[in-house]
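Dear Dr. H.,

I hope your travels went smoothly. While you were away I took the liberty of generating a structure for the chain from your last submission, since the lab meeting agenda had it listed for discussion. I wanted you to have the full record in hand beforehand rather than looking at slides cold. The sequence, exactly as received, is reproduced here:
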Amino acid sequence: MIATIALCVAVGGGTAVALKGTNTVDAGDIKDAKLVKVKPNPVGETSPCNEGRTGVFCGADSISGYRGWSNLGGETAPAGFWKNGFGEVHLSGAVKTSIASGGSRIFILPPAYRPPKQLQFVTISEPNPSCEEDCDRQAEVTIEPNGDVNMPQQDYAYYGMSLDGITFLAK
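The corresponding predicted structure, in token form, is as follows:
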């Protein structure tokens, strides 16, 4: 019975936890995990990430215009993160950068969403928006204990990169 209830709750987007010693799941045991959307960059002379701001895209204004990260847009979901009742952090959405090469920080996770050690993930990126088939490339995303979400080598994120499926335990 508990497995059936937990499955129904999980499919519905919540989290169910059976308390030790009981055979029931009460309404208070179900925690709604809310998606925190990464906020747009305020486009100033310095990156909000250099100031330690969390949940905001990294980047700064320069002579050549905005240099940094943003949501991919179009039909893709905006970048965000959430944590379930088991302490698992989930990233989602798709991002792009205006920087064509070199690695950089995408955004910073708040303290409650950070891993205990550096984590590395492989995801999908799109190097060319005019490509019509078999265009996806692998891209690496690292998440640091200080909350930095990075793309160490962003050669292929210029036109879009997915954060969907990146999941880890918070410290």
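Two observations you may find useful: Residues 72 and 158 are 10 Å apart (CA to CA). The chain is about 5% helix and 35% strand.

With kind regards,
E. W.
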